[in-house]
């Protein structure tokens, strides 16, 4: 084990932050660390909106189900998948960009996720805490309007960053034997392994320091997949230029 692996293994979502600000040099350092992430075809299809306007923060918090950490975190960044920039580059060089292809959507979305995770690891390496906010997609049109996002750009998630004011337990993950498979997708032994993991997850939820509940992982997944998951996203993405051709 080494320090980097220790930091990765200790990851947890932080929803309560101190009032201590993050220095601009620190913020720029962790965002620059994000730029070092891999980028398919060197697209670099990411734009980050740093939201310091507290009126906008309040509106984004409302979109995200009034999650308090959106308001209380010293920094709130919105990570956007951005094809607008490369499209402009193509046009500037006399080309005719092919727009709306699903592969382009995938590349820009993956770029955004890789970039953000680098930012997270860098932040945690400096003793900061983070919380991803996917709920800004509850109303992506409102989020886009607030941030004045152009066509071919969409908000993927927000990210709260700050000095932790809590120390929650690390959430146990699925057994590695369920995730890591040799050569083929063999799920023949998963049921038994997930049953064992469900007991671990239920114990975690029942004994953690906050928001206790009695629920296994598979029960949580049943609840998640039984309901519609932001059905507005398909039309929003098409309207925003991501046609999925």
From TrEMBL:
Against InterPro entries, the record matches this protein to:
Flavin_OxRdtase_Frp, Nitroreductase, Nitroreductase-like
A Pfam match is Nitroreductase
The keyword 4Fe-4S appears for this protein: no
Taking the record's annotation, the residue ranges forming a coiled coil are none
What are the protein's GO molecular function terms?
A: oxidoreductase activity
Where is the Nitroreductase domain positioned along the sequence? 9-163
**UniProt EC number:** 1.-.-.-
**What keywords were assigned to this record?**
Flavoprotein, FMN, NADP, Oxidoreductase
NCBIfam families, per the entry: PRK10765.1 (NF008033)
Entry similarity comment = Belongs to the flavin oxidoreductase frp family.
Q: Could you tell me what this protein is called?
A: Nitroreductase
Please tell me the species this chain comes from.
Puniceispirillum marinum (strain IMCC1322)
């Amino acid at each position: 084990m080494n320090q980097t692996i220790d930091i990765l293994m200790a990851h947890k979502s932080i929803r309560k932050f101190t009032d201590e600000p993050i220095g601009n040099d620190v913020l720029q350092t962790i965002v620059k660390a994000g730029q070092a992430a891999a980028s398919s075809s060197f697209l670099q299809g990411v734009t980050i909106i740093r939201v310091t306007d507290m009126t906008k923060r309040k509106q984004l918090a409302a979109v995200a189900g009034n999650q308090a950490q959106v308001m209380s975190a010293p920094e709130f960044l919105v990570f956007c998948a951005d094809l607008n920039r490369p499209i402009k580059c193509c046009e500037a060089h006399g080309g005719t960009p092919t727009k709306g292809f699903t592969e382009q959507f995938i590349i820009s979305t993956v770029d955004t996720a890789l970039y953000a995770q680098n930012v997270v690891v860098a932040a945690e390496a400096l003793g900061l805490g983070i919380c991803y906010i996917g709920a800004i997609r509850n109303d992506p049109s409102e989020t886009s309007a607030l941030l004045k996002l152009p066509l071919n750009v969409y908000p993927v998630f927000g990210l709260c960053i700050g000095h932790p004011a809590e120390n929650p337990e690390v959430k146990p993950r699925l057994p590695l034997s369920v995730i890591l498979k040799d050569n083929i997708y063999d799920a023949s032994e998963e049921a038994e392994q997930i049953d064992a993991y469900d007991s671990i997850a239920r114990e975690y939820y029942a004994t953690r320091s906050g928001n206790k509940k009695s629920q296994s992982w598979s029960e949580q997944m049943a609840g998640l997949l039984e309901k519609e998951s932001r059905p507005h996203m398909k039309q929003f993405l098409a309207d925003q230029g991501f046609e999925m051709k």
